[in-house]
Design a protein that fits this description.
29% helix; alpha+beta; globular; single chain; 27% strand; four-stranded antiparallel beta sheet
Length: 204
Amino acid sequence: MKNIYMLLLSLACLSVSCKNELQKSDEFKVKKALDSVSEVISVEAAKPSFVAQSTDQQTADNIKNFLVNDYLKEELSLLTANDRKFQFYKIDLNADGKDEIFVRFMTSYFCGSGGCTFLLLDQYSEIITRFSVTRAPIFVEPSKVNDWALLLVKDSGVFKELIFQDGSYPSNPSVLPKAPYDAPSGHAQVMFHDELYESKTFEF
């Protein structure tokens, strides 16, 4: 009788031990699965996320060709490798179904204390406006003047309106009067906002 009791006790202990081992095994599997999920999330979070209007490779290649073979052809020898960078943003400013293209230069060769050089190109890489001493971001309002979108930029701490007239926007925001309001509308499209709406950077 004593032997039977001891056998039953041993089986009970073995069962408890196995159960504990299974629980530990399950806990390990769960922990491992959670760690894997966290790792995937971390990797995804680390990937750069750029606004879609700034990532098209064909557009980037067209701009590179324009800069190297046309716009900066005579200045290439003066540029360092760091100077040869740009961003772009495609947007239809006059509702004709064809995107215009903003090109942003960000390096010291193209920038000074008042801002940087920006280009506005049509679909054929013809210059519509060459902006000087202009700061990002640029706000594109839904309202239009002369059938082209109203642009807003900040200069010397205040906003300036850029109104399309006679085939171009004003090229130098610093000489314009303050806009009649202190902020863009909540419906403005924002270009080249490095913290909220980052554009992809290319080299030429």
